[in-house]
Amino acid sequence: MKFRTFTVICAMTLAMMSLSVQSFAKPTITTFNAPGAGANNQQGTAALSMNEAGTITGVIIDSHGLVHCFVRNPDDTIIKFDVPGAVVTVCYSINDKGEITGFYTDQS
Questions:
Q1: Is 19 helix (H, G, I), strand (E, B) or coil?
Q2: What is d(CA 41, CA 78) in angstroms, rounded to the nearest whole number?
Q3: What are φ and ψ of residue 5, in 5° steps?
Q4: pLDDT tens per residue, range 7-46
């Protein structure tokens, strides 16, 4: 009796899992390079975080090896920026309010 109950529960669970997996939309992958990104080894664009609205933040490593922040909006516009006076600016995360966290280093 316990074996049959367990079998029915497992079958129902598998059926529900199958339905929930089928209801997800097929994911898409979008590739992009932010303006000013270098094209050599250890250069380019690295997306590090995305919020619920689809806004992405990360870093650009340019052809001189300098690190800058970027924000890519859902409409595909990309904004590159640095903290004033910084040599390196890194954006790690963006929340649903659009607030970005990260760090920077300056000459001193």
A1: helix
A2: 22
A3: -60, -45
A4: 445 444 545 555 555 556 788 888 899 999 999 999 999 9
The per-residue pLDDT for range 41-96, each reduced to its tens digit, is 999 999 999 999 999 999 999 999 999 999 999 999 999 999 999 999 999 999 99
Which residue do the tokens 């600016």 mark? 89
Phi-psi region of 34 (alpha: psi -120 to 50; beta: other; left: phi over 0): beta
Pairing of strands 56-61, 100-106: unpaired
- SS3 (DSSP) at 14: helix
Residue 81, number of CB atoms within 10 A of its CB: 14
DSSP letters for 51-103: -TT--EEEEEE-TTS-EEEEEE-TTS-EEEE--TTEEEEEEEEE-TT--EEEE
Is the Cα dihedral 11, 14, 20, 23 positive or negative? negative
